[in-house]
Design goal:
By secondary structure, the protein is of the alpha+beta class. The chain is built from five helices and twelve strands. The strands form three sheets. The chain has a six-stranded mixed beta sheet, sandwiched between helices. A four-stranded antiparallel beta sheet has the order 2-1-5-4, with helices on one face. Helix 2 packs across helix 5.
Amino acid sequence: MKATTLVPVEEYLRTSYRPDCDYVDGEVLERNLGEHDHSDLQSELLYYFRSRRKQWRLHAVVEQRVQVAPSRFRIPDVCVVKGGGPYPAIYRDPPFICIEVLSKDDTRRSMQKRIDDYLKFGVPNVWVIDPADRRVWTYSSEGSREVKDGVLRTENPSIEVSLAEVFAGLDDARS
């Protein structure tokens, strides 16, 4: 068994990690990322939200620290918040949507821990997208489901994200 060195939250916050790492109860945890499909899908999602920013009054960013509990910081692949700013260096209020793009090394267990942290914190919409097989799941306080109709939906505000449009951007990049 690997020995773990616990890091105080203050040290985590003043240290730069490349790429940035999650922080869970004193442990600095590396995130799985860095491959083209993961990065490309992140970019398409960011573009999709950014191009509708004024219409939806939502702001999307990638790899933003979110303090989900006093000793827990998560970094969603894409984070969407309501309103027009100003935006804090670290989000300490629940974002409107946290999106995780699966990497080949993500495990079901580690992803479920992330989802649970977001939901417990009060994030109303958590989306998990697998770029390899283009399957998508949504999570909320009411439960989870796989998206079968090709549209991600939210309420308050009510928005619809066309997965066909998001994935078309990936296809365009390949041709």
